[in-house]
Design a protein that fits this description.
The radius of gyration is 26 Å and the shape is globular. The chain has two domains: about 375 residues, Beta Barrel (Thrombin, subunit H), CATH 2.40.10.120; about 260 residues, no CATH class. Helices cover about 45% and strands about 15% of the residues. α13 runs antiparallel to α21. The longest helix is centred in the C-terminal third of the chain and has 42 residues. The relative contact order is 0.17. It is an alpha+beta fold. Strands 1, 2, 3, 4, 5, 6, 7, 8, 9, 10 and 11 form an eleven-stranded antiparallel sheet that branches. A seven-stranded antiparallel sheet has the order 13-12-16-17-18-15-14. It has 24 helices and 18 strands.
Length: about 700
């Protein structure tokens, strides 16, 4: 036990050594250790203003939006901003050919017009605290990893049970940091009645589409507006017409002063996942194997979806959200793999490991890079097969649907609702063409030793993926909405025998029996090696700041407004304007076809310099989408929504010359709300600093 107390203290001490403002994702509860550096870079508030459990602070205006984005409260009546792409599925669910809110936008002109969103939640962080000693209570060095994991789970569950109260909307979790060298408790209050208030047309909210995604200059009005509702006591409640707007502890004041290059900025949000401290073997696999192969597979799917979406408006609505979800990571992986190669990250990691090994000789950390290298050599071929399975077989919608129905019937749940949801956004010709492309790719590119016997046998019997498709979609009951809706547990034999379920299940059983045990065993050994390696890195570089990898918990990242130079003789200024939108406007290209109302507004004159987006050096990741971007006085100046393509390797290695986060300028949000949505009634409840 004493060993882990010492190590926790070591990691905390290392975390607070000086580091340039641009890099790092810092825990708000420990912000007192960073506040001097923040203030040295221009911040004018105190640590208590950023995070406090004794008084309202900025943390109380930030939410985890849904399960993977961030949002910010901007009025005393629970008004909330997030990204358009974060609210996209809700906007899409409310859309139809008759009321196409994706195409035309949606603007409630009174609270009675705000639309409920079943299942959508926002979570406020109540507090966080270190609980390492409590989580590791009872640990002794003679325990193996399985015993340690079991102990951690029991102790962690006990901690959560003490504070969680679902009846009051209180959720809690214990999260491991620094590869389980430290543990923190996070306590949230979760609100369940969140209503759509406004969203621009997709031609504004997704302007530039996949073409501009992850790129600069960016001109995307990536925002949507929601409102949080509560019961009469301001407590979480299910949707009810009797609910009232939530009254927050704190909400953001909005600055209309704008930004200048060099201005202090900080992002307060929930970054999803980073791997800053991994070995060269992990980086090589990501940059040279995983990313390129997943890019190729997703290109096939995207091309198929886009072909049909371009032919039919109804199909475009059905697949807009799906296509965006596929494309987002696809584009990010391209920048990530190129960034890893450009920076020579693998070679740099190898050099670091050589120096580490020389230093570690004769210490408890000796041999760790070599140990990791041997483990990755065993893991990577198996993990590649798993990733290929996920990106091929698991992407065929009919197969996944068959599995979902089977699970519902096994549990005795009705399937009519599952069927309604599925068929609302399903277009069989797309799925059939993806079926052929994915099975063909799996057959051609997967090593023979990693092909399930069922797959080999069936493909040989049919002779081609096309023939297999023709038979499967003709015979499967899952292509018939009425038949699926009528299924009961008595029909389980027919469901199990269905060719769609049989194919899904054959691959799942292959994964579960042949891949998962190997991956799980090796991942446990790799995690254990990283736990030691993390401590070793901190001991090897005692003057370096080590911030914990992102895990979708609340963090602060601070930096400044800045442009960048992506290549020789090219410099990108940090602010884009409405003039740039008009320069890209093209009615013949879907991604660049802006709404006519925006053309009309621009034609009136005087809007050339209207700001749209800006760049800064804040260290962000997935999950930071929708995060508030705040100025030196703590006022809202923007909404984070992306990173530049050349800097997407920041999940693995941060390069201050290339890594830039892209944010919507809050002034463009206000411009669109007023000029396009004519919803300036919302301004009456906002507070402006200038």
């Amino acid at each position: 036990m004493k060993k882990y107390v010492i190590l926790a203290a070591l990691s905390l001490a290392a975390a607070f050594q000086p580091l340039r403002a641009d890099e790092g994702m810092w825990l708000p509860v420990l912000i007192t250790q960073r506040i001097d550096d923040m203030q040295a870079h221009g911040f004018r508030l105190t640590a208590e203003d950023v995070y406090s459990v004794n008084q309202a602070s900025l943390k109380d205006a930030v939410v985890l939006f849904g399960s993977g984005c961030t949002g910010e409260v901007v009025s005393r009546n629970g008004l909330l901003f997030t990204n358009h792409h974060c609210g996209y599925s809700q906007i899409q669910q409310h859309s139809s050919v008759e009321h196409d809110y994706l195409k035309d936008g949606f603007w409630a002109l009174s609270r009675s017009e705000e639309l409920p969103n079943p299942g959508l939640t926002v979570s406020f962080l109540e507090r966080m605290e270190e609980v390492t000693d409590a989580v590791l209570k009872g640990y002794v060095p003679t325990m193996d990893e399985a015993q340690r994991d079991s102990l951690v789970k029991v102790n962690g569950d006990a901690i959560v049970k003490q504070v969680a109260d679902p009846s009051k909307g209180i959720r809690a979790s214990v999260e491991a940091l620094y590869y389980a060298n430290q543990y923190f408790l996070f306590v949230y209050k979760v609100y369940r009645d969140v209503r759509l208030v406004g969203a621009p047309p997709s031609s504004i909210g997704k302007f530039g589409g996949d073409t501009d995604n992850w790129m600069w200059p960016r001109h995307t009005g990536d925002f949507s507006i929601f409102r949080i509702y509560a019961d009469k006591n301001n407590e979480p409640a299910d949707y009810s017409e009797d609910n009232v707007p939530y009254t927050p502890k704190r909400f953001f004041t909005i600055s209309r002063a704008g930004v200048q290059e060099g201005d202090f900025t900080f992002v307060y949000g929930c970054p999803g996942s980073t791997k800053e401290y991994v070995s060269s073997d992990e980086v090589r696999y990501v940059g040279e194997v995983s990313d390129p192969e997943k890019i190729a597979l997703r290109t096939l799917r995207l091309d198929i979806q886009k072909k049909y979406m371009a032919q039919d408006q109804a199909v475009r609505i059905q697949y807009s959200s799906k296509n965006a979800n596929v494309a987002n990571a696809w584009k990010k992986w391209q920048g990530e793999s190129k960034g890893i190669a450009r920076l020579g990250t693998v070679a740099a990691k190898e050099d670091y490991e050589r120096r580490f090994s020389a230093w570690a000789a004769g210490t408890p950390y000796a041999g760790l890079p070599e140990r990791l290298h041997a483990l990755y050599a065993q893991r990577n071929p198996v993990y590649r097969a798993y990733e290929y399975y996920v990106e091929t077989i698991r992407t065929v919608e009919l197969l996944q649907f068959a599995s979902n129905v089977k699970s519902a019937l096994d549990a005795g749940r009705p399937v009519a609702g599952i069927a309604d949801t599925f068929f609302k956004d399903y277009y069989q010709p797309i799925d059939e063409e993806i079926f052929v492309a994915m099975l063909d790719a799996f057959d051609k590119h997967m090593n023979a030793g990693y092909k399930p016997e069922y797959f080999r046998r069936q493909l040989a019997a049919y002779g081609s993926p096309e023939a297999w498709r023709d038979a499967l979609y003709a015979q499967s009951l899952f292509t018939d909405p009425a038949r699926v809706r009528a299924l009961t547990p008595d029909d389980l034999p027919a469901v199990t025998a269905d060719p769609a379920f049989a194919l899904y299940d054959a691959f799942y059983q292959w994964y579960r029996q042949e891949l998962q045990p190997v991956i799980a065993r090796l991942d446990r050994e790799i995690r254990l090696a990283y736990r030691d390696y993390m401590r070793g890195q901190m001991a090897f570089e005692p003057d370096k700041a080590f911030y914990p990898d992102a895990n979708l918990t609340l963090r602060v990242a601070y930096g400044h407004v800045a442009g960048y130079s992506p290549s020789d003789a090219v410099y990108y200024a940090p602010v884009s304007t409405l003039k740039g939108i008009m320069e890209k406007d093209n009615p013949e290209i879907f991604d660049y076809n802006i709404p006519q109302v925006l053309r009309d507004i621009y034609a009136e004159g005087g809007h050339d310099s209207q700001p749209v987006c800006f760049l800064a050096t804040n260290h962000t990741s997935g999950g930071n989408s929708g995060s508030p971007v705040i100025n030196a006085d703590g006022n809202l100046i923007g909404i984070n929504f992306d990173r530049v393509w050349e800097g997407t390797m920041s999940d693995i290695v941060f390069d201050p010359d290339y890594c830039r986060n892209i944010s919507l300028d809050i002034r463009y949000l206000l411009f669109v709300v007023r000029e396009v949505g004519h919803a300036d009634w919302l301004f009456d409840e906002m507070v402006f600093a200038d």
